[in-house]
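Our preliminary data section would be incomplete without showing what the modeling component actually yields. Below, a chain of 261 amino acids is followed by its predicted structure, encoded as tokens that our downstream tools consume directly.
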Amino acid sequence: MLNRKTLFVLLSMFIFLIGCNSETTNTTDQHLSESNVINMIESEGIEITKTKATSPFTDVKISPESFTINNTNHELFIYAFDTIEERKEDFPITYSDIKNETTYVFAAKNVVIVCELGEAEESTFFNAVDQVEKVVFEKLHDLNELLFTAQGAYWDVEYTIHYFEYNWFDKEGEEHTEKFSKIYPLIQYKGDETIAHLEWSVSFQDDDTETRQINKPLLEDGTVNKNLTFTQRINFPKEDDNVTIHLLWNDKEETLKLEAN
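Predicted structure:
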């Protein structure tokens, strides 16, 4: 046993969506052009080449520009609508959707990007999908960050939230909110004992609680397998929310209140 074993838990990467059905005022920060999207995709190192492929979505009011991805026959389609409302009439999603294992859809403001699996090796497709998803979240939206922290007798916690949130108006003047977040909690164990099982719950907004548990949480380097901590949800804490985390391990427990920084 190590004299001091550090447990980094990359807790549930929460993905929260709240969608709306409607339209935007045409402001510069809420409207993306096709050239904006192409430039951002290529800046991420994704090579796209124009083609004449047919989109899997045939009932959309506008025609997309079509491309192949990274010198394969995997395909990418870009729909650039005039407004968010028009986009939502055809693609009523806030951030992403998976139609099946071959079609991935991402939305940013008035734009939709569709990735379609070709006959090339699947791993090259899913690598490209990950790259596109990163572009959509990090470059096509204006991200904000919130950090919550807590220090306890056994655990130190950092709870980082990356999110976008903006309002827009439809043709009738009704206001709508578009928001989405990813949350990256990091937990550090301060004890020196072996942990065979870890369970935790994060609570915010009164009765909104997420519970996770991991058996054999420690890898050889003393960290938790990040793939075991992924989760998705519908909400994210705000700066003035009461956020707590409750941890159970080895017949012990600790509850910490996280403070916004």
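The first strand starts at residue 8 and ends at 10. The CA atoms of residues 5 and 211 lie 24 Å apart. Preliminary results of this kind motivate Aim 1 of the renewal.
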